[in-house]
Each structure stands twice: as C-alpha cells, then as structure tokens.
Amino acid sequence: SPLKRNARIQLATGLDAVERTDEAIAILNGLVGDNPRDLEAIMALGNVQRERKKFAECARTYSSGIDTLPTEDKKAWVFYYFRGICHERSKQWPKSEADLKQALTMQPEQPLVLNYLGYSWIDQGVNLDEGMKMIRRAVEQRPDDGYIVDSLGWAYYRIGNYEEAVKNLERAIELKPDDPTINDHLGDAYWRVG
C-alpha cells in the first residue's frame, strides 16, 4: 500500500509512546535503511532518540537529515535546531552553538531557536545583551508559551533584575504550573527579592 511507510512511522511513534522504544527504533532504522533520503523517517528516528536521551545517536541521525537536504533549503533549520539540542545535552557546546546559529541563519525569527540559544547564553553568563534580545523576540511571538516566558524570567534573574524575574516567572507558572524547573526558578527569584 502507498500508505505503508506512513503507517510504519505512526506505528513506531505509538510503540515508543508505550515504552517499546527498541522496537520503534528498529522500525525507523529499517525505513531509513530502505530509503536514506526519507526525511520524515529520519526526523521521527531522531526525535525518538532525543526524547530517550540518546544524544550521540540523535546528533548522528539529524546529521543524516542535514546531509540529505540541499544547503539552501530553509526547511533544514529544524534539523540544525534539534541537532544543536543533542550536542548541548551531550556537553558539546561549541557544536551546539554553531548549529543553533545556523538554524537562525535559515529562520532568523524562529522563536524556539531564539529562545534556546538566548537562554543558553544567559545561563552561561555570556552574550547577555544579545541573549536577552533574542528571548524577548521569542516571547513577543509566543507570549503564552510557559517555557519561553520562563526563559525571559530566568534571564532577568541571571542579570540581577529580580523584580522583573519574579513578574515573568509568575506568568510562566500560570502557563505551566506543574513544571518543576519553572517552579525552581520562581523559588530562586522569590528568595532573592526577600
């Protein structure tokens, strides 16, 4: 059936959702093996690996997607973004930063990339002004995204503006009340303002 490939990708996604990740990865590896240029299967495989914290593997998988796309293809930003996350999580910051910057070159106002790179810089204590500008641009585009609003609050915290930190982190908690990281950030900010 012409729908077999799509059904296999959906099956793999479903198997991963019920903790049958090895089976999901085997199915997706099979699809990519059959067609190494199948960007949808490559993306699905990389996403499963990333969600399961297999960061070295997902970086390689996203690289195969990048190698498949023409250099000027604007859709490649998402592969660079996800590979940048995998590199950052595996403690390879220079590679991560290069990928995130490449993603921004392709999509300069992409809020997820603006947020990730800006937050990473702020958290490391580097490029504070540029990082803050990036996060603000991300919040302007996604004012109801609790994670992005949290980034702005945490950025204010890192530069010592605790009043603005509390204001933004309280807003982030309204949007994502159960997130432990956002709650931790707000607790830190409350402690600073007394």
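[next item in queue]
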Amino acid sequence: ASVLASLDLARIYYKYQKFDEEIPLLETASHTANHPITLGLTLSNLGLAFEAKGDCKKAIEYWDKVQTNPKLAFLHGNTLIKTGLCYEKLNQADKAEQTYKKAEAIPGEADASRLAKKYLRLLKKG
C-alpha cells in the first residue's frame, strides 16, 4: 500500500516538476516494492524523473534495471524506446540504434516495434 501511495504522490510531483521531491520518494519505494508491477512502475518512473530533470545517464541506469529483470518483461518495450531517446539526447546514435533494434525485435510488442521502426528511420535521416 505504501508503494502505491508513493507512486500516486510521485505522479503529482512529476506533474509539477518537483523532481527533487519525487526521486527520493521513488528510490525509497523501489527498495520496498516486492511485486513485479509496483517494482517495474517505480523503476520506470525513476527513469522518467531523471530524464525530465536532464540526467539521461541516470535515467538509463534505472531503465536498464527494468531490462535486466525478466519479471518486468511487460515494460521492456516501453523502457527500450525511452532509453533509445535518451541515447539520442546524449548524442550516442549508435547506442540509440542498437536499442531501437532490440525494441523492434521483442515478440508480442507491436507498439514498441512500430515506434522503434519509426525512430530508426528518423535516426538514419538525421
């Protein structure tokens, strides 16, 4: 229950760009989240908060935690797309391309695959 309350409060902090309040709240929640859904949402939202704050390296660290956890497969496509976008922001087009190709290849992830194909096309144009 406390993790869900933290996720709700974090959403409010995110909306009002209070990332310095949101991040410690979610970091604490990530240590107590014991269900794959709450853990996945907590880690994913931590990545979003760091990205919004302008720290893509730290965002990628949290999204990588999602990627390496097989129990969080339901978030893999989404976090791969976000990771690729952050790599683009970091001017690491090669890593962005690898990430998009990985997202494109996830079985059963039609939305992620479609987005990955789009971003790959845009990356090659850029």
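[queue empty]
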